[in-house]
Structure formats: C-alpha cells, structure tokens
Amino acid sequence: MEALDGSLLRLGVDSLDLYQMHAPPAKNSITEYMDVMTNAVKAGKVRAVGVCNFSEKQIREAHAALEKHK
Q: Cβ neighbours of residue 32 under 8 Å, at least 6 residues apart?
C-alpha cells in the first residue's frame, strides 16, 4: 500500500484507473497481494486490478482471491 500511496502522490492524483502487477510476488502470496489490492479498491485508490507475466495457475489464484471479496 505504501508503494501505491507513493505513486498517487508523485502523480498528483487521488486514484488510478488500473493497478497492474507486472510479476508475481516474490515474498508474499498472491492471495495476500490481492487482499491489499481489494483494500485499495475499497478505499477508492484503484478502480481495477490487473496482472501480467503470471502463469495460468497464478492468474486463477489471483482471480479467486479477488472474487472472495465480492
């Protein structure tokens, strides 16, 4: 969340239309990162979350983690 807040500050905006993760997390689980992204959406800091360079299994894991918050 600190990195997102820093980006918002540097860009001079209150929210981003898309927060794109360009690689799977190395330290924490995908589910933990998607929980943080859900909090960012709920806080109005991000409108949508995207991923790239994830395997099919990792994309499904990210999707399932986001879906549990609906």
A: 25
